[in-house]
């Protein structure tokens, strides 16, 4: 068990319905296209495969996909979409769990590496990716840029969503590099909101590059989004690709 918080049955059942934007054709089309090009004719391994938001359409694209998932409840939702032969899933954490064979692509999307709450575990995640990659294979991470530029002196919270049915803001501990995402979600029409929170360890792109170097990987590409747009100082997130030499 790692420091990652475990998704329970209620959260797993709500996940797809609450992530409608991330499951849209516009988002998934670009994501799957980017990953399929990197996988080529090889196999792909998704760390924290979850409910199969990306893994299932990537498999439908023709890329053999295997997943690692910490939450049996998230994996159970995925299993209702595809069977074990179509998309095998190994229950375990992404920092230490090993599955058989070599892969041309290992990927970790939607900020999930930040679920590992210590630097040591994040380093081990990179090492685990390198362990599974064949020579010339790639490790891909999608991760937000820490929102510290939006914090004036004395303020510790940054809003990231203010919409009709959801209020979200992050609180930041700049000493420990820990971020807590707070969510207030209106489930019905009675005016009541459900409160939730999740903890994350944020890391700058340069820190990730050092983790990659420790694992024997080399930065190949960094872009702002799955469409390949340039990464700049204004980009709220990045897609980074590291390559295993060989």
TrEMBL record:
It comes from the Bacteria. Keywords: Methyltransferase, Transferase. The keyword Cell membrane does not apply. GO terms for biological process: methylation. Its EC number is 2.1.1.-. SUPFAM superfamilies: S-adenosyl-L-methionine-dependent methyltransferases (SSF53335). This is Class I SAM-dependent methyltransferase. The keyword Ion transport does not apply. GO terms for molecular function: methyltransferase activity. It is an enzyme of class 2 (transferase). Residues 45-137 form the Methyltransferase domain. InterPro entries: Methyltransf_25, SAM-dependent_MTases_sf.
């Amino acid at each position: 068990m790692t420091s990652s918080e475990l998704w329970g049955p209620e959260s797993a059942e709500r996940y797809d319905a609450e992530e409608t934007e991330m499951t849209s054709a516009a988002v998934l089309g670009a994501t799957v296209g980017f990953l399929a090009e990197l996988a080529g004719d090889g196999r792909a391994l998704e760390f924290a495969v979850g409910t199969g938001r990306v893994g299932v359409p990537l498999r439908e694209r023709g890329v053999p996909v295997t997943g690692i998932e910490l939450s049996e409840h998230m994996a159970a939702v995925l299993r209702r979409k595809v069977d074990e032969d179509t998309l095998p899933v190994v229950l375990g954490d992404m920092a230490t769990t090993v599955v058989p064979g070599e892969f041309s692509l290992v990927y970790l999307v939607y900020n999930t590496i930040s679920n590992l709450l210590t630097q040591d575990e994040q380093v081990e995640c990179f090492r685990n990716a390198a362990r599974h990659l064949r020579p010339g294979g790639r490790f891909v991470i999608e991760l937000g840029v820490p929102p510290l530029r939006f914090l004036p002196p004395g303020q510790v919270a940054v809003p990231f969503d203010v919409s009709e049915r959801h209020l979200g803001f992050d609180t930041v501990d700049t000493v420990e590099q820990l971020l807590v995402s707070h969510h207030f979600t209106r489930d019905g029409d009675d005016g009541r909101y459900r409160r939730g929170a999740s903890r994350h360890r944020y890391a700058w792109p340069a820190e990730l590059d050092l983790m990659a170097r420790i694992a024997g990987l080399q930065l190949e590409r960094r872009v702002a989004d799955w469409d390949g747009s340039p990464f700049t100082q204004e980009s709220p997130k990045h897609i980074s690709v590291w390559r295993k030499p060989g």
